[in-house]
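[Q] Does anyone have a clean structure-token version of this?
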Amino acid sequence: MNFFKSFLASLLGTFVALGLISVFFFMAIAAIATSVNFDKVEGAWISENSVLDLNLNTVVVDRSPKANPFDNFSDFSEGRVGLDEILGSINKAKKDDKIKGVRLKSGFINSGWVQTREIRKALNDFKSSGKFIYAYADYMSQKGLYLSSVADSLFLNPMGVVELKGLSSEVLYYEDFQDQYGVKMEVIRHGKYKSAVEPFLQSKMSDENRQQIQGILKSVWETLRDEVAASRGLEPETIDAIVADLIVGDAEGAFEQGIIDGMIYEEDFDNKIKSALGLELDKDYKTVDFTRMNVRIKEYNVEIDDRIAVVYAQGPIFYSEGSEKVIGKEAINDAFEEVLESEKIKAVVLRIDSPGGDALTSEIILNASRKLKGKKPLVVSMGNVAASGGYYIACLADRIFADPMTVTGSIGVLAAFPNIRGMANKIGINAEQVTTHKNAMGYSVFEPLNSGFKKSTIKAIEKVYHTFKSRVSEGRSMDMEALEEIAQGRVWSGKDALEKGLVDELGGLTEAIATAAELADLSAFNLVDYPKYKDDLESMLFDTFSQVKSEFTEHPLEKYASEFIEFSQLEGIQTRIPYSIKME
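[A] Here you go.
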């Protein structure tokens, strides 16, 4: 018997060892591949008369993700590329005389509107070099069309489908569901627009919530409509008329309305590129995949000592260490401390893409940014979302940039507490409490909020709200009374935020970096990325699990369960965006 135990233990140990060796082998290969790609920036390996192959039918994130070997073992994992990588490849292709044009495919691009617009701006700048951009798709989503419309020529498969329908946003309301199943969310909030938890409180959308959602959709739509119209030589009113009656739905309709330039198959599209390059149709043309260029916005010059640090703050804000997908106090604060101590780093750009979160963590991060005041310029670049806590950590910056499509503002506070008393009663569970004082229990998931706990929470929320406003007042030099008019949890588009004085300029990451260089009086500099996250096993497994988990929250009931669990896991007072905004 002992023999078999020893044998099985040895066998199990062997399998575990082999598994770990495989993981570390893939990690090593990925690291080597990354370093090789990063070093190839001189362009000697690029052939003459080449075309940049920009296939963006993938997931786009702000910062190029670290290699994760576990992605290879997950059926749900999706390839992700960094916005910095895309912008860098376009910028380099513009400067490289060997690259004559861009072959663009973006019909299925999976990115935020702000990221899409930054890519579009980079492609517009690429065209100023006199090089061509040809775009092609079998299917064209509305976001893909917005990006592809920047091309000199845009083609679609003759049987292709085009989406051009305007913008919408859908919010699910759970009041009746909660009443039926005995699960509810106890909510305390400040700000009539602070509607993050509105779906748990009522069965219909409030007028205030409808007003702010409508305002954001209108602002974002006007930006993308006007830019598509300008690129396609159409009037904005023409685009609105096409959208209102869904006139365009297929390749033929898109061609008739001037949305695309032709209906051809992909091999014919390649022939047009050959003609643009002056090649015979029976010859192949050389392409350079944008991921091979991998130059991260700006090429690194070892002869230049001066640097600008780009600190990426991505995801919800939690009282935690932080990761690529979660903003935590340790990671961001360590980044600020390191850039403050570095003599080579002359300025900082804080790139924010966050719906907000824990109020205490937001204050801790803001206080860390305050230490840069008067020592090094701090410029904020807002991505898709920089709202509530995301705006909180931005408000003391020397300059704040937002894209017209950025969702920002939401200066308000909330706290949410799950209550399952009704469900517990239905399944025969009864919770009894014994205490020394009437408020000793505090909060219990099995009981409604007692008056003492509710009173103390309201007091805390009022204090956080006042502090939040005072920080914004300080950073934006705004009167507290005037600020109240645009606060109360209301969400604004970047364009509207500029009018309200919440941001300084409209622009993206490139413009923010240029301004940081100007404030630091730099004519030449290198870019360095922060925070420096650990490549540990736990974080890689967590990222993979998060991707798998996201695949299971599409059904309305699953979405409710996901949101209920998400709010139940929130600790403390929250400076969080009113709702999950998805504009499609």
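[Q] Thanks! Anything notable?
[A] Residues 2-39 form the longest helix (38 residues).
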